[in-house]
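Board notes (copied after class):
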Amino acid sequence: MAINQDLIVTVMLALVMALVISFAATPFVRRLAFTIGAVDIPRDNRRMHDHPIPRLGGLAIFLGFVISVLIFAEIDRELQGILIGAVIIVVLGIVDDIKSLPAKLKLVVQILAALCAVYHGVVIEVINNPNIFSDNPYWVLGFWSYPISIIWIVAITNSVNLIDGLDGLADGVSTIGALTMLILAVMLQEWEISIVCGALVGACVGFIPYNLNPAKIFMGDTGSTFLGFILATVSIQGLFKYYAVISFLVPFIILGLPIFDTSFAFIRRILRGQSPMTADRSHVHHKLIDMGMNQKQAVSTLYIISGVLGLSAVMLTTTSAGKAALFILALVICAVVAVRAIWPPHHGDGGVGEKKKADEKPPETAGEETEEEKNG
């Protein structure tokens, strides 16, 4: 497969520009957040930080991404719809970071943003038939392509938002997901998608030095919902569209961590007779903290899981199903061994003592505020 060197350079330039803009803009956004009152003040014991921390950091990610895309990408109808929807999501996030909005209102606006993208052609029209014994290799969704696309966009938007519970978690997981999509887009020589993914990777990487524990600024709803929206819409354009090459499972694998965490959170609450949006401490990152890990260890563990899922998606696309399955199994085993070796389980107090020590150190316990905590 011949790779166009000039286009690779363009992708790298888009990545670097987004990184530089995001990194340079974050200190200004931090000061702006204090000025307009977009500050997370801990008010209950669900917060994992003990002092006011500005949110709104997602605005720096958005600026880096949009400026880079406008300079390097060709703005076709589909990308225009994605950008319009992203602006709606970011405006919603800014208002919500200043003054928390009702969940139902936010859902309505998110659907409106998804409709903008779908109206401009960002639609899942055909997927692989999961039944390998069927004579028909593809499913043409017809009318159902529109509601399915809207549900996918809104679901992923909120899934990324709901995992934004530890410093650097949502940003890092989104970076890994965007990087995986970038690799697949380059392999398929889909250069416009490659530029968009490159810009997203750069914007996330530029922000993460400020967001790692102990965080100087949170991305807030402005960032988490924006990242979820872009990952959802770009996955439609860059993955679902190429049904003849990529299994419909690939987008689910790439975004597996937020999908898994949110799905099981909703199922868990429904089985308990609670509202799916009821706040609790049962997300994956909460479980790792309760096991005795500090934030850095928990976030690193989830980075490893996301990396394994990303590599698995690439393997599923580039090799036979049998080889991909073996490779995925090997990666899972290696990841489990690595996590156990780096962070062995605590004995005696079951890790509770370690957690208490971590809780006594404010720099180690600063954490992002999840959507559920804001509405809880």
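Comment from the instructor: Strands lie at 39-40, 53-54, 126-128, 138-140. The CA atoms of residues 119 and 152 lie 15 Å apart.
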